[in-house]
Automatic annotation (TrEMBL):
Domain of life, per lineage: Bacteria
Annotated Pro residues bias: 205-214
Region annotated Disordered, chain positions: 190-214
Organism (species): Rhodovastum atsumiense
Protein name: Pyridoxamine 5'-phosphate oxidase family protein
InterPro entries: Pyridox_Oxase-rel (IPR024747), Split_barrel_FMN-bd (IPR012349)
Amino acid sequence: MQPTPPSDFARLRRKPQRGAYDQATIHAILDAAPFCHVGHVIQGRPVVIPTFHWRHGDTVFWHGSSASRMIRANAAGGEVCLTVSLLDAWVLARTSFNHSANYRSVMCFGVPSLVDDPTEKLAAMRGFVERLFPGRWETLRPPTEQEVKATAILSLPLTEASAKLRSGPPGDDPEDRDWPVWAGTLPLRLVGDAPVPDDDVQPGQEPPATPFAG
């Protein structure tokens, strides 16, 4: 794990040994997470919005309605904190104090930019669909000019980001390891269910693979 954070603000204070600042770790967690939360300050109040994100190179993107107050706040130069979290296991110890969880998380800070060039916006929209369902974009009706106009795309360079991770067994104290109760990890994963077609699906039209199924 890279020992040097990109800024003092992004540096982990609590359990810093779990921190990572290298691009490979941050990119992998962002790519594995199905959605993110974006925190803003709007009219002086904190607002956290769940949305879908995708990454291209060292930039993370997310989308929203062109009419939303979130977009207006970001276009005006408001700072954001974009976060993703993945829960990998419950960690059961022999005392309640040492119960924990195995997880992977990322926090990204900065001022996002509005993607307003039509060609770049269309490419970003394609990247959103292709991240979830590779190969599907070419099979879809192309978006109309009004649909592109109604969609806002925001981008944030990953220049100030940090990851925090935990893995492994519980950290019981030596004097507790003989306590007569089960201890260990309960692994968790996201699993997709069987696809449910709508009433207008024609014979021979197959669903895509379920994304993010562990």
